[in-house]
Design a protein that fits this description.
The complex is a heterotrimer of chains A (449), B (106) and C (232).
Chain A lengths: L13 H12 L2 H8 L12 H5 L8 H15 L2 H5 L12 H11 L8 H4 L7 H14 L5 H13 L7 H19 L15 E4 L2 H5 L3 H13 L3 E2 L10 H5 L2 H17 L4 E4 L3 H14 L8 E3 H10 L4 E2 L7 E5 L2 H4 L6 H10 L2 E3 L24 H7 L1 H10 L3 E4 L2 H13 L5 E3 L1 H8 E2 L1 H10 L1
Helix pairs in contact in A: 4-8, 6-8, 10-12, 12-22, 14-15, 16-18, 18-22
Chain B lengths: L2 E4 L2 E4 L14 H12 L6 H17 L5 H8 L3 H7 L3 H9 L10
Antiparallel strand pairs in B: 1-2
Helix pairs in contact in B: 2-3
Chain C lengths: L2 H7 L1 H22 L14 H9 L9 H4 L2 H26 L7 H27 L1 H6 L2 H20 L9 H16 L7 H18 L23
Helix pairs in contact in C: 1-9, 2-9, 3-10, 5-6, 5-8, 6-8, 8-9
Classes of the chains: A alpha/beta (449), B mainly alpha (106), C mainly alpha (232).
Amino acid sequence: MKEGRLRTYEPGDNVQRFLDLLGRRITRSLAVSMTACVHCGLCAESCHYFLARPDDPTMAPVWKADQIRKIFKKYIDWTGRVAPWWVKAGSLRDDEDLNRLKNIVFGSCSACRRCTYNCPMGVDTGLLVRFTRGLLTELGIVPEGVFNVSRDQWETGNQMAVTEQDYLETLEWMRDEVRTELGTASVDIPVDKPDCEVLYTINPREIKFDPRSIAHAAKVFHAAGESWTLPKWGWDQTNFGLFSGDDKLGAYVARNVYEAAERLRAKRIVISECGHGYRSTRWEGYNWADYDQKLPTESVVVTLKRYLGEGRIAVDPSRNPDAVTFHDSCNIARSGDLVEEPRWVLRRVCTDFREMFPNRRENFCCTGGGGLLSMAEYRPLRLEVAKIKAEQLRATGAKLVCTMCHNCVDGLNDVIKHYKLPMRVVQVLELVSNALVVPGRNETKKTAR
Amino acid sequence: MPHIEVDGKRIEVNEEGFLAHPEEWNEETARLLAKAEEGLEALTAEHWAVVRFIREYYMEKNLAPMVRKMCQATGFPLMKIYDLFPSGPAKGACKVAGLPKPDGCV
Amino acid sequence: MSDLLKFVENEVQLAALAFLAVVYAVRLIWIFRFRSRKERTFAAGSEAGGVGYSLMNVAMPWAMESTRKRPGFYAQFVVFHLGVVAAITATFIIPYAPEIFRIRAVAIAFQALLAAAFLVGLLRLVRRLANPVLRLISSADDYLSLTLMIMFFGAGVLAVPNDYRRAEWPLLLFFGLTAFFLIYVPFSKICHYLYYPFTRFYLGRSMGHRGAFPRGRKAGTQAPGPVQENRG
């Protein structure tokens, strides 16, 4: 690992280092979020942690944000410096205090920004939490799971330490599977092909544990006659920098993707179905990396919508007859732009699409967001407060819950298992691939029957 | 320490239902984990083929194998793994094989 | 009218106002000294549209679930803040345009609004004391600021008739409180209105850029009628 990339915890004057970092890193928009809160408490009921634990005031977003706010008040804001007791400013004493702060910002908040959307003052508690996580990460005061994944992403360029050989072999394997399925050798999963229309980037879990989605994508790209490629390096669109609050890691991983597109002279970057990956690669990454956006960067769901809209692929919705509901991912709906696009696609590839309530930018987190899936120590609380999500899912009566985020797939699977819901999680690409009509192949199948 | 109880036996697991002490795994544990966590009443020869491969791979490399390696070693097509283990290769098969939870977005 | 009352209504107020202006200026400079980040992505929406929507949030109770679900809370907010506007306006009307309050209807309207704000203030104090979340997070400043506002509204009700011939103490109380406010406000939570344009601007700009603000008609929180289970 290169020097200074990821720090491990060292005893010492961590409090002073934390305060130095706080002073150095804070931006204007964060500073006003630190000062503007009027303690009205309206945010409490927007948070699934508080809704599931209404008798525990420490679950309210305002309390969680106050734990960092009071440090800001004590050391940076004037009233707090002069009269700390008056505004409940509080000092940091030791590493134990920092550890407590870690448990709050990592353990009791998925940074879903639902409270941000419900704050009359416009205080961005979701961003304050991420900011605080970043300060703690810099001191190595970070959950083990987040540390391990961040380390892998720094060292191997992808969050699951997949080797180049394993990556290439899995892609070949999936190519062969699709060739067999469609009965044609003309299908390909190109790697590092220059001058393509689409540079496709994925989540390492697709390589390591669930490559079905790569096969689905290959099938759709083939049917649409797309010129596309995956890069040999810079293929991981996920980004633990978003979760750990480490902008440097965020910049490094995102830049890998942008540089791959530049190297291969691709016309656009397409991001497979992943919420935090979309937010990181489409929105935050360019800013973290100080890299001016040059290419359209879109979610594969937008690509699918374009194919359907332009008639480049044909679908038969009757192949998806089960009732489907859609779960908006926080990072896409609240920190990004896409809410109608996935619905537009689903209405065309399924026969029974139904909303869950609340939905779109007001949907509840899958409970595994903000990196919580990789923090085993906070899982019991996560599943306890998932009761809000479980009720919301159950009320739809749908058999399938569709989401355009890999993280939500696992988060929702945990909820479904824990609360014994009669549902299965699917993704948009899977439903589109199911419904896809590939002329030659389907005709022969039908006549054979 | 959280635990699960199956058939009157008690297994210590971590917060995510993965074996707390992966080194203490044996076939009996696998059967109990499969029942409790995957809803599998019995493990067939096909299940065992996958589980044994994962176990051996893990003992050798201290790492969960990629799903491709599972398919290569057992000769099963990809979909078969999902048929055998409803929670999939990571949270299903690896769990029954007594591995700790793989890192990352899984 | 006594010299004391004249002094309190004029020189003291102007001095306090000047002080407020100076502290605000310092505060604004303080805010602008924090760095701001450059946006490097293509926009999916309009930053100006997002900022406008975000700033107008205060007048759109339907825009957020938190206020949509609690119309009563929003109504209280409106009354309370209109009360503030009325009280501040009164501090200028009384010394500089006293004829306005000689119109009985105007004086009564002001008194009614201030009285309503006074009651809302009491309700808010009760809520702050009774709600466990608010109790846990509230600071001395939260309690004092609210109590002062309640007193200010109360004093306003008494002062608006501007009947200094009968008794000067309501006016002295009202203007004394005003002067104290002008000095205390910049150091208290009351100056949140100074931050509102900033938080709202940054949130609106960022969400507008990403196309998340303004939020369309399909805000999408409530089910159309009761949620049916297992329709399929």
